[in-house]
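@channel sequence for tomorrow's demo:
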Amino acid sequence: MRTVTWSLIGTTVFGVAWLAWRAPKKSLSPRPARTCRLVQDIQMPVGGVVDQILVEEGDAVKAGQVLMKLDTEATRNVGSAWRKQSSSNRNSLVLRIRRSKRSLPVNTEQLQMLENNLQLQIEILERYQELEDEGAASELQFLSQRNTVEEIRGRLIATKADRLRQEAQLDQQVAQLNSELADLRSRLAEARVTLRYQLLQSPWMVWCLTSSPRPKASPRNQPRR
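C-alpha coordinates (generated this afternoon):
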Protein backbone atom coordinates (compact mmCIF):
# COMPACT_ATOMS: atom_id res chain seq x y z
CA MET A 1 0.00 0.00 0.00
CA ARG A 2 2.79 2.41 0.84
CA THR A 3 4.49 1.60 -2.43
CA VAL A 4 1.37 2.48 -4.42
CA THR A 5 0.98 5.77 -2.54
CA TRP A 6 4.54 6.87 -3.27
CA SER A 7 4.11 5.85 -6.92
CA LEU A 8 1.04 8.10 -7.24
CA ILE A 9 2.85 11.00 -5.59
CA GLY A 10 5.86 10.61 -7.89
CA THR A 11 3.66 10.41 -10.96
CA THR A 12 1.78 13.57 -9.94
CA VAL A 13 4.97 15.56 -9.30
CA PHE A 14 6.41 14.46 -12.63
CA GLY A 15 3.23 15.43 -14.46
CA VAL A 16 3.14 18.89 -12.91
CA ALA A 17 6.80 19.48 -13.72
CA TRP A 18 6.32 18.34 -17.29
CA LEU A 19 3.30 20.60 -17.79
CA ALA A 20 5.20 23.56 -16.37
CA TRP A 21 8.08 22.91 -18.75
CA ARG A 22 5.80 22.57 -21.78
CA ALA A 23 3.68 25.64 -20.99
CA PRO A 24 4.19 28.59 -23.46
CA LYS A 25 6.41 31.35 -22.11
CA LYS A 26 4.94 34.86 -22.05
CA SER A 27 7.07 37.86 -23.03
CA LEU A 28 7.44 40.55 -20.42
CA SER A 29 8.47 43.13 -23.02
CA PRO A 30 6.16 46.17 -22.96
CA ARG A 31 6.27 46.40 -26.76
CA PRO A 32 6.77 43.94 -29.60
CA ALA A 33 10.35 43.18 -30.53
CA ARG A 34 11.66 44.78 -33.67
CA THR A 35 14.73 44.10 -35.66
CA CYS A 36 16.99 47.11 -35.97
CA ARG A 37 18.89 47.57 -39.17
CA LEU A 38 22.52 48.54 -38.94
CA VAL A 39 21.85 51.64 -41.08
CA GLN A 40 18.80 53.84 -40.59
CA ASP A 41 17.86 56.41 -43.26
CA ILE A 42 17.30 59.92 -41.92
CA GLN A 43 14.78 61.75 -44.04
CA MET A 44 15.70 65.44 -44.08
CA PRO A 45 14.49 68.16 -46.49
CA VAL A 46 18.03 69.60 -46.61
CA GLY A 47 21.53 68.22 -46.23
CA GLY A 48 23.77 68.93 -43.30
CA VAL A 49 25.78 67.60 -40.39
CA VAL A 50 23.95 66.13 -37.40
CA ASP A 51 24.67 68.15 -34.26
CA GLN A 52 22.35 66.61 -31.64
CA ILE A 53 20.08 63.56 -31.39
CA LEU A 54 17.53 64.33 -28.69
CA VAL A 55 15.71 60.97 -28.42
CA GLU A 56 16.64 57.38 -27.71
CA GLU A 57 15.32 54.09 -29.01
CA GLY A 58 11.82 53.37 -27.76
CA ASP A 59 11.04 56.93 -26.66
CA ALA A 60 7.42 57.97 -27.16
CA VAL A 61 7.29 61.32 -28.91
CA LYS A 62 4.58 63.89 -29.45
CA ALA A 63 3.64 65.58 -32.70
CA GLY A 64 6.06 68.40 -33.38
CA GLN A 65 8.65 67.20 -30.87
CA VAL A 66 12.22 67.85 -32.03
CA LEU A 67 14.10 64.59 -32.52
CA MET A 68 17.32 65.77 -34.10
CA LYS A 69 19.16 69.03 -34.76
CA LEU A 70 21.54 69.75 -37.60
CA ASP A 71 24.59 71.96 -37.25
CA THR A 72 23.43 75.50 -38.11
CA GLU A 73 26.78 77.29 -37.87
CA ALA A 74 27.58 77.10 -41.60
CA THR A 75 24.10 78.26 -42.62
CA ARG A 76 24.17 81.15 -40.14
CA ASN A 77 27.61 82.23 -41.36
CA VAL A 78 26.41 82.24 -44.96
CA GLY A 79 23.32 84.22 -44.02
CA SER A 80 25.43 86.74 -42.11
CA ALA A 81 27.76 87.18 -45.09
CA TRP A 82 24.81 87.78 -47.42
CA ARG A 83 23.31 90.33 -45.02
CA LYS A 84 26.61 92.24 -44.94
CA GLN A 85 26.87 92.13 -48.73
CA SER A 86 23.29 93.32 -49.05
CA SER A 87 23.96 96.23 -46.70
CA SER A 88 27.14 97.13 -48.60
CA ASN A 89 25.34 97.10 -51.96
CA ARG A 90 22.51 99.20 -50.56
CA ASN A 91 24.95 101.80 -49.22
CA SER A 92 26.77 101.86 -52.56
CA LEU A 93 23.48 102.44 -54.37
CA VAL A 94 22.54 105.32 -52.09
CA LEU A 95 26.01 106.89 -52.48
CA ARG A 96 25.90 106.76 -56.27
CA ILE A 97 22.45 108.30 -56.37
CA ARG A 98 23.61 111.13 -54.09
CA ARG A 99 26.66 111.79 -56.27
CA SER A 100 24.45 111.88 -59.33
CA LYS A 101 22.07 114.35 -57.71
CA ARG A 102 25.01 116.61 -56.83
CA SER A 103 26.49 116.52 -60.33
CA LEU A 104 23.26 117.00 -62.27
CA PRO A 105 22.66 120.62 -61.14
CA VAL A 106 26.22 121.55 -62.16
CA ASN A 107 25.73 119.94 -65.55
CA THR A 108 22.38 121.68 -65.98
CA GLU A 109 23.98 125.05 -65.21
CA GLN A 110 26.73 124.44 -67.77
CA LEU A 111 24.14 123.58 -70.40
CA GLN A 112 22.19 126.73 -69.66
CA MET A 113 25.30 128.91 -69.93
CA LEU A 114 26.27 127.33 -73.25
CA GLU A 115 22.78 127.77 -74.65
CA ASN A 116 22.72 131.45 -73.63
CA ASN A 117 26.18 132.04 -75.07
CA LEU A 118 25.23 130.29 -78.30
CA GLN A 119 22.15 132.45 -78.67
CA LEU A 120 24.24 135.59 -78.11
CA GLN A 121 26.89 134.57 -80.64
CA ILE A 122 24.20 133.78 -83.21
CA GLU A 123 22.79 137.29 -82.79
CA ILE A 124 26.30 138.75 -83.25
CA LEU A 125 26.76 136.60 -86.36
CA GLU A 126 23.51 137.89 -87.82
CA ARG A 127 24.65 141.47 -87.13
CA TYR A 128 27.96 140.82 -88.89
CA GLN A 129 26.00 139.45 -91.82
CA GLU A 130 24.02 142.68 -92.08
CA LEU A 131 27.17 144.80 -91.79
CA GLU A 132 28.92 142.73 -94.43
CA ASP A 133 26.00 143.18 -96.80
CA GLU A 134 26.23 146.96 -96.23
CA GLY A 135 30.02 146.93 -96.64
CA ALA A 136 30.64 148.00 -93.06
CA ALA A 137 32.31 144.74 -91.99
CA SER A 138 34.85 142.52 -93.62
CA GLU A 139 34.20 138.95 -94.69
CA LEU A 140 36.98 137.82 -92.33
CA GLN A 141 35.09 139.17 -89.31
CA PHE A 142 31.95 137.40 -90.45
CA LEU A 143 33.74 134.06 -90.93
CA SER A 144 35.48 134.36 -87.55
CA GLN A 145 32.18 134.95 -85.82
CA ARG A 146 30.56 132.04 -87.63
CA ASN A 147 33.42 129.81 -86.47
CA THR A 148 32.80 130.96 -82.88
CA VAL A 149 29.13 130.03 -83.20
CA GLU A 150 29.94 126.56 -84.51
CA GLU A 151 32.48 125.99 -81.73
CA ILE A 152 29.98 126.87 -79.01
CA ARG A 153 27.30 124.73 -80.67
CA GLY A 154 29.72 121.77 -80.70
CA ARG A 155 30.50 122.23 -76.99
CA LEU A 156 26.78 122.34 -76.24
CA ILE A 157 26.13 119.12 -78.15
CA ALA A 158 29.06 117.38 -76.42
CA THR A 159 27.86 118.50 -72.99
CA LYS A 160 24.35 117.20 -73.67
CA ALA A 161 25.75 113.88 -74.90
CA ASP A 162 27.95 113.59 -71.81
CA ARG A 163 24.94 114.21 -69.57
CA LEU A 164 22.93 111.53 -71.35
CA ARG A 165 25.86 109.12 -71.06
CA GLN A 166 26.17 109.77 -67.32
CA GLU A 167 22.44 109.28 -66.79
CA ALA A 168 22.45 106.03 -68.78
CA GLN A 169 25.50 104.79 -66.87
CA LEU A 170 23.86 105.64 -63.56
CA ASP A 171 20.63 103.90 -64.58
CA GLN A 172 22.62 100.80 -65.55
CA GLN A 173 24.50 100.78 -62.24
CA VAL A 174 21.30 101.26 -60.27
CA ALA A 175 19.60 98.44 -62.19
CA GLN A 176 22.57 96.14 -61.58
CA LEU A 177 22.65 96.94 -57.86
CA ASN A 178 18.90 96.44 -57.58
CA SER A 179 19.26 93.07 -59.29
CA GLU A 180 22.04 92.10 -56.89
CA LEU A 181 19.95 93.23 -53.93
CA ALA A 182 17.00 91.17 -55.16
CA ASP A 183 19.27 88.13 -55.54
CA LEU A 184 20.67 88.64 -52.04
CA ARG A 185 17.16 88.97 -50.60
CA SER A 186 16.25 85.70 -52.29
CA ARG A 187 19.34 84.00 -50.86
CA LEU A 188 18.58 85.36 -47.39
CA ALA A 189 15.03 84.01 -47.61
CA GLU A 190 16.45 80.64 -48.70
CA ALA A 191 18.84 80.67 -45.74
CA ARG A 192 15.95 81.38 -43.34
CA VAL A 193 14.00 78.45 -44.80
CA THR A 194 17.08 76.23 -44.49
CA LEU A 195 17.41 77.20 -40.82
CA ARG A 196 13.81 76.16 -40.21
CA TYR A 197 14.59 72.75 -41.70
CA GLN A 198 17.53 72.19 -39.34
CA LEU A 199 15.12 70.51 -36.89
CA LEU A 200 13.78 67.00 -37.57
CA GLN A 201 10.33 66.47 -36.05
CA SER A 202 8.40 63.22 -35.92
CA PRO A 203 4.92 62.26 -34.61
CA TRP A 204 5.54 58.51 -34.19
CA MET A 205 7.41 56.08 -31.92
CA VAL A 206 11.15 55.80 -32.50
CA TRP A 207 12.28 52.17 -32.23
CA CYS A 208 15.66 51.83 -33.88
CA LEU A 209 18.01 54.79 -33.73
CA THR A 210 21.76 54.48 -34.18
CA SER A 211 24.32 57.00 -35.31
CA SER A 212 28.04 57.39 -35.60
CA PRO A 213 29.77 60.54 -34.28
CA ARG A 214 28.46 63.57 -36.24
CA PRO A 215 26.81 61.64 -39.10
CA LYS A 216 25.72 63.38 -42.26
CA ALA A 217 22.05 63.62 -43.20
CA SER A 218 21.17 63.56 -46.89
CA PRO A 219 18.04 65.33 -48.19
CA ARG A 220 15.38 63.28 -49.95
CA ASN A 221 12.64 64.47 -52.29
CA GLN A 222 9.88 62.50 -50.58
CA PRO A 223 10.02 61.59 -46.88
CA ARG A 224 9.44 57.96 -46.02
CA ARG A 225 6.22 57.29 -44.13
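heads up for whoever presents: The chain has a mean pLDDT of 70.
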